[in-house]
Amino acid sequence: MTNFPTGFLWGAATAGHQIEGNNVNSDWWERELTMPGMEPSGDAVDSYHRYREDIDLLADAGLDTYRFSLEWSRIEPVEGQFSRAELAHYRRVIDYCLSRGVTPFVTLQHFTTPRWFANDGGWTSPKAKDRFLSFVTQATTILDGVEWVATMNEPNMQAAIMTAMRRMAAQGGQWQSPTVEADAAGSDAPAEKDEKKQHGSFLQDADPEIGRAFVEIHHAAREIVRARTNAKVGWTIAAGALTAAPGGEEKLKQIRYGKEDVYWEGSRGDDFVGVQAYSSQEVDANGLVPHPPHPDNTLVGTAFRPDSLAMAVRHAWEVSEGVTVIVTENGIATADDTQRIRYTDEALRGLADAIDEGIDVRGYLHWTLLDNFEWGHWAPTFGLIAVDRETFVRTPKPSLGWLGEVAKRNGLA
Predict the structure, then answer these.
(1) In this predicted structure, what is the pLDDT of residue 38?
(2) CA 38 – CA 28 distance, rounded (Å)
(3) Is the pLDDT of residue 202 over 90?
(4) What is the structure's pLDDT at 280?
(5) Is 154 a catalytic residue?
(6) Where in 270-360 does DSSP place strands (E)?
(7) What is the pLDDT of residue 409?
């Protein structure tokens, strides 16, 4: 038996725009209407109305933590005008979690922003910090009893998306989700493949100055959450679990600093840092090496690398200088649920090894609870629960029950 620490959090994570449906005031909704190659989110999986059922499925399986996000564009559809009704909606989600004995883990901002914010410079605007802090201040009014709060989800991926959007605006071309490898959505046409390969390179071109700006905003939001709530506060970072191919050592340092390390450094002084890892990738002297073709590759084109979780946790622990870790996302895009269980089992065994080494890890939140809208695409399925997009009927997969049993035992058999 591989045991985990007493009080370890076991759960699953979601993001509002990917599951709620009809977030019509968000920048992503607007983008879906105009960006070539994007599928619309539409009703998504209607979790806005069905959150009780989703929390019930999680709790009944044996999981004890639900990570979900507040949708800023619902709460502040017009700058300075905050919806009491929407704040009350999210308070009901929190209360329902508590009524089921489920720990609510609240993300204040998960990729999406209001259209008015995005259309007036977004995160690059000199007003961005004050605008976000105004929203955070309102959000704290509903966080009584919430123990864990993330200010932002994957600011390093948000920076990458900003880079991608600028490039697409300048060059044209079709949308390619940053969570889907270029080759996974590719075509046999050489010109299209070349364009997508070039587009995918934005993931290695992260600007550390953008990262430092996000760190400043995060620190200011952190202080508001600490002053107005009793929650533990941090943020979540996308971890590439990057390694150096021969001759790629210096390039690795360069890419990893802008893509990750400036954000791990920004976690110093937080109550926790959320590690989000899915796969591992090599860096050679020219940059990121494409994932090699393999039958086990995921639906988003990445290599089957459950060992990436422990690699990412060790790196986060080192660079953050010992900030408590929570795995806020880890999972696999696959239509084969036995592969999902195999991946998760191996990832958790590696995580247990990292804990045995002395790394302070307090929880594991699987990505994701429900098959959902994967940022412009519907095909990748990460969920522990399948959803019929016509009827919204939820069908738990064996992986949900399997992870629930792990949670009940607080260990792997």
Answers:
(1) 93
(2) 10
(3) no
(4) 97
(5) yes
(6) 273-277, 281-284, 287-288, 325-329
(7) 98
DSSP 8-state symbol, 327: E
- Bridge partners (DSSP) listed for residue 364: 10, 327
Please tell me the distance from the alpha carbon of residue 148 to that of residue 327, in angstroms, as a whole number: 13
Say what the pTM is. 0.94
pLDDT value at residue 412: 98
Q: What whole-number distance in Å separates Cα of residue 29 and Cα of residue 72?
A: 13
Per residue in 114-145, is it b (16+ CB within 10 Å) or e — as a string?
bbbbbeeebbeeeebbebbebbbebbbebbee
Question: Kind and range of the H or E element at 205?
Answer: none
Residues 284, 269: Cα–Cα separation, whole Å: 33
Sign of CA dihedral 188, 189, 191, 196: negative
Distance from C-alpha of 403 to C-alpha of 385, rounded to nearest angstrom = 12
Q: Which of 71, 154, 195, 374 is catalytic?
A: 154
What is the residue-wise DSSP string for 99-138?
A: HTTPEEEEES--S--BHHHHTTTGGGSTTHHHHHHHHHHH
Give backbone dihedrals phi and psi of 270, rounded to 5 degrees, phi first: -75, 165
Consecutive H or E run containing 233: strand 232-239
Q: Tokens 């210096």 identify what position? A: 250
155-171: b (≥16 Cβ within 10 Å) or e = bbbbbbbbbbbebbeee
